[in-house]
Amino acid sequence: MNQREELIAKYATDLKEKFNIDADMDLLTKITIGLGPSIYNPDSSTVSSSDVSELDRVKNNFLIKKLGLIDSSALDEGITSVMERYGQSNRNKYRVVVYYLLTKHFGKEAAY
Questions:
Q1: Which of 51, 73, 74, 112 has the most crowded CB, counting CB atoms within 10 A?
Q2: In angstroms, what CA-CA distances link 62 with 2, 33, 109?
Q3: Looking at the chain, which runs of residues are DSSP E strands?
Q4: Got the DSSP string for 13-30?
Q5: Is the pTM of this model over 0.90?
């Protein structure tokens, strides 16, 4: 198992343990591949829910540019919902898992 496959397995486990979600492995893999080398960097592989600029990047670079959503308060509400589900006390909010949950939340699986 290579490093990317190990990370995908870790993300699937995170989805199962924290959200009781059996991941769509095809979608999870595509999101992981789409993030490229950032998944290997400890800082860029996670999302800080307390950093407003980080959440703005998720909104602009992922939801608007990647998923093609229109900027609205619904995007902020979706991000807030995912972050609350992940839990404020959880310091390791994996970017892949956050993007997976947002993709499912907005029903934009076809973007992949």
A1: 112
A2: 26, 14, 13
A3: none
A4: HHHHHHH-----HHHHHH
A5: yes
